[in-house]
Amino acid sequence: MSSWSPTRYKTTNWSSYNDSLKRRGSLSIWFDPEMVWVPPPSGKRGRQQNFSDAAIQACLTLKVLFGLPLRQTTGFVQSLLQLIGLDWAVPDFSTLCRRQRTLNVSLPYRGGTGPLNLLIDSTGIKAEGEGEWNARKHGGSKRRIWRKIHIGIDEETLEVRAVEVTGSNIGDAPVLPDLLNQIPPSQDISSVTADGAYDTRKCHEVIAGRNAHAVIPPRKNAKPWKPTSAGAIARNDAVKAQRYLGRTVWRRWSGYHRRSRVETKMHCLKLMGQSLMARDFDRQVAEIQIRIAVLNRYTELGIPVTEIVA
Fold first, then answer.
1. Which of 217, 288, 304, 310 has the most C-beta neighbours closer than 10 Å?
2. What pLDDT, on the 0 to 100 scale, is given for residue 1?
3. Cα 282 from Cα 284, distance rounded (Å)
4. SS3 48
């Protein structure tokens, strides 16, 4: 039996992908004059809002993209509007701070050509406090707060389709139903790929409820479940296949290696900042969602197309 060798891939669209990488660094910022900057009257009693959610998200996007505090963000947006000749009012820093808490962030995505293959992963991001090395070296405060980011990406387009933010004390498996609920019921889901932390009965039942195939490695020495439901039957089939093929061969046979793409997306998310600037939970959720919206815009410019080298 010949020894195993890693699969080699070749990028076939270097020209267009290289152009898309250069466009990610472009400083051309476009404001659509037809954009609803001031919302229409709501018809409700009380003071009306002076700025739409789209206007607030545009300002906060520039804040996240360039790592600016709120006051500098206001001055930056004001200078941009003056350069392009738009006489729009600019929200002050207190308005941005207040509206960020309740902002309904819109995640742009193109969507694939067929059923959705969803890749799930989670990671932690620092919300408050210095790093472990600084606290150990200089005796700083040991109070550190982390937030947990759970995302699901489309395997075909590499765009984030679902995101949830929780505290660091929340596990991975309980959040999976919330991620799947963010996918419209009209969207067909072909498979859901996740690591062994999602090998629970509830996760398998939720995936089976969307008529999707679960690619989740059973835990070592996993025992079959009583096949009383579709999720349990699918999980038992995975346990039998893993026992017959072995863990290594099963991962290659089932396509579990595709989960590395969502891990790469997590790395890209960390490149936009290792910590959060907001200090309360609701604003932190909006900040993370805006970061992901920026990443989807980057991905929309172009991704590499690869093929296996024989």
1. 288
2. 45
3. 5
4. coil
